Amino acid sequence: MSKTSILDDHANLDEYFKPASKEEILSYTPKAKKTEPVVEKVEEEFFTKFIGDKNYGYYNDKNVWVW
């Protein structure tokens, strides 16, 4: 019969499962890479270009949009 466990029968489980030290964590932590900042293009809202332009329509006295 073969073993499927990585631990043998006489392993010290407290030693095996001890928390990592700060140095171990820092050695496995990848260093941050320098990247260029993401510049988002500010796009105009589609409907805001119509506000105040009589060529596209207006609100009448009943507060209804008229094209």
UniProtKB/TrEMBL annotation:
Domain of life where this protein originates: Bacteria
TM segment ranges: none
InterPro entries: EAGR_box (IPR022466), EAGR_sf (IPR038145)
Stretches assigned to the Enriched in aromatic and glycine residues box domain: 45-67
Protein name from the UniProt record: Enriched in aromatic and glycine residues box domain-containing protein
Species classification: Bacteria, Bacillati, Mycoplasmatota, Mycoplasmoidales, Mycoplasmoidaceae
